Structures are given as structure tokens and as C-alpha cells.
Amino acid sequence: LQYFYLTFTCTFAVLLPDFLYLSLFSQMEKSMNPLRPYERIDTRRQFLDNDSKVLRFYGYWDDSSSLFGDVRDLVLHYFLVDDTIEIREVIAPNCGRDHVSKFLRRSKLPKVRHYVITDTPVPLQTGAVKQEFYKDSDLTIGTELNVWGRRVTITDCDEFTKNYYRSKYGIEDFTPVQYKAPAAPKPSRYVPPYNGFGSEEDSLSSCQGLVPKPPQKDFHKFMTKDSHVLNFEAKMVTENPVDKDRVFIISFYLRDDTISVFEKIQKNSGVLGGAFLQRGRVKKPGQDQSQRSQYFTAQDFYVGAVLCLNKRNFQLIEADEYTLNYMEQHADEVWTLVHMLYTVYIIYCVCDILCVIFKFCFYRSV
Questions:
Q1: 10 Å Cβ neighbour count for 143?
Q2: Which residue, 36, 242, 276, 294, has most beta carbons within 10 Å?
Q3: Report field, pTM of the whole predicted structure over 0.90
Q4: What is the residue-level pLDDT of the chain in tens, covering all 366 positions?
Q5: Contact 297/284 with Cβ under 8 angstroms?
Q6: Domain 219-360 is found in CATH 3.40.190.10
Q7: 44-168 belongs to CATH 3.40.980.10
């Protein structure tokens, strides 16, 4: 038994180096065999026909099954020049996700994750890899793609892609897939009533954000209409005999829509006269306190108009020459009615002059 053991040990020791050499040589020989065929595939025609042509699809990846997962919006680009696919993720602002450059870098996308090496009788295709990739014919609206284990669904495409499939494959139905729930209606913003501090615009800006900002003014209007002031002569509409004879000059400043009222000084009238209303914007009467106030504008001023300024009614009975000329030149902007009244006023003045001339000629002839 001892002799048999020594003989077996010596024989195995002699054959062991040859066994290791053969195993290493076989592994090296397998690694040197080509996995792809030694044949040339000409893609120049595809490059010349489809260079710079890209199909764009819109889709999503539903990751709701995982922890803290949700639906990801994706944009898929298919490059016709080499049949490669690139996927980018649409990251909404303030979504809590880091911005990544690409969801899938540009490459050919296989339909299955594992490829199969088959032996074929053709010498040049021995050891060729048989693997199927996604083509343009596989990408349609509603199709589900296997992007390395992630199920991506195509929902829509752009206009160029629609024209491409319409001309090449004759597809006419491009109805997008609706996968998002309808957005919830936005709650109405409650604006508290004006509390009397500062202007209404200034108080409203404090309700529009955490950091209040000063209200913006119309700088263009301020520069173009800085020196334009409309002056009207007015009387107070009242039953008081003392106030009926009072004469006022109402000035409207076009650069900021402010109004000032000045009373003419009349001797022995019992009224001092002077500044009646300090320059500022005046609210229109009869407004709801819960709504934003409306102020008098240039459209409200014309000869014959009745204005309620701080609970006092004034009737505009006359305007100076500059005001009438300005309103006539800008009649297309605001004063369509004023232009008509001004025309009537001119006709009235001409008729009055003709009557005076007729009376003068009549009495002279008599």
C-alpha cells in the first residue's frame, strides 16, 4: 500500500504542470477569438441622408413603486444618423432633486439586457453577437421601452417627428397619452381690505410676498407726459346760493393722474378762495371697499362732465385753449366724446359770432 501511494504521488506531480499549462492556454486562446464578425458595414449613406435629423419624443418613467419614488418626466432623442438614443430628465424647479446632465447617455439601446453568442456556419460570422436594438419603427406613441430595466412609456412627440412618421410609415394617429392627473384648482387669494396706512398699492405689495417691494410706476408715461396739464373751469353743483357762484380751476396732471382744485378769489363774496384740494389722486365714488379702488383718469375729464371730488360735485363748464387742442390731437386715444363736444363748441362759437355780425348789420341798416 505504501508503494502504491508513492507511485501515484510521483505520477501526479509529473503531470500537474502540463495540466495547468493546457488550462491557461485554452483560456488565452478563447480570449483571442473575435466576438464580432470581421465584416465591414458601410453606414455612409445613412450618415449623408440623416445627418442632423433627430426625432424627439416625450415620455415618463413611473417609479412610484419604490420608496419616495414618483413619476419622472423624460425627453427621448433618437438620432437617425446612427440609430442611437439619448434620454434627458425634465427636472421641475423646487422638486428636491439634483440636476443631472442625462438620464441615459447617447448610445444604442438594446431591447434585452443580455446578448447571446451563436455559432453560425458562415466563417466571417463565427462568434457573432446576436443582439437587437431599438429602431425608429419601434418608437410610437404608447410604446413601452425597456431602458436597462426601467419601463419608459412614450406619450407624445414633436411636429418634426410626426411629419417623419407620416411620410415614411403612413401613421396618422398621434393622439398623446394622458398620464397626469388634472391639476387641482388654485385657491383664490384673499386680499384684506385697505387699512388706511400709506397708499393702497403700497399696502397691496406687502400681501404679495414675504419681502415687500415698492409699487412700480409708469416711467414712460412720466417722461412723455411730464409737462402736460389739463385745466378746466368748474362750478359746484349745489342748491346753496353762496356756493353756486364759486368758480374753481381743476387741473389734471397726465404724468401721474393727480388732481388739484384751486378756487378763484372773488371780492366781497364771503369766501377766502385759494387752494381747495391738494394735488393727489382721487377715488371714484360708490366703490366696494373690499375691491381695489378705481381713480379718476383723463377719460373722465371733458366739458360738461360732472365729477364727485371728495363728496363735492363739480361740473366742468369750460377748458383752456391748450387743453382743447391737446384733447383734439389725442382724440383717437381716449377722448372720442370730447372731440364731438369740442366740435359742437366750435360750431356754437361760430354761430354766436355770426349772430353778432347779423345784428350789427341789421341795426346799422335801420
A1: 15
A2: 276
A3: no
A4: 444 444 544 554 454 555 565 677 677 766 666 555 555 667 788 888 888 899 999 999 998 888 888 889 999 999 999 999 999 999 888 888 888 878 999 999 998 866 554 555 555 555 556 778 999 999 999 999 999 889 999 999 999 999 999 999 999 999 999 888 888 888 887 777 777 777 788 888 888 778 888 888 888 888 888 888 899 999 988 888 888 888 899 999 988 889 999 998 888 777 888 888 888 888 888 877 777 788 888 888 888 888 888 888 998 988 888 888 888 887 766 554 555 555 666 676 677 777 777 666 655 565
A5: no
A6: no
A7: no
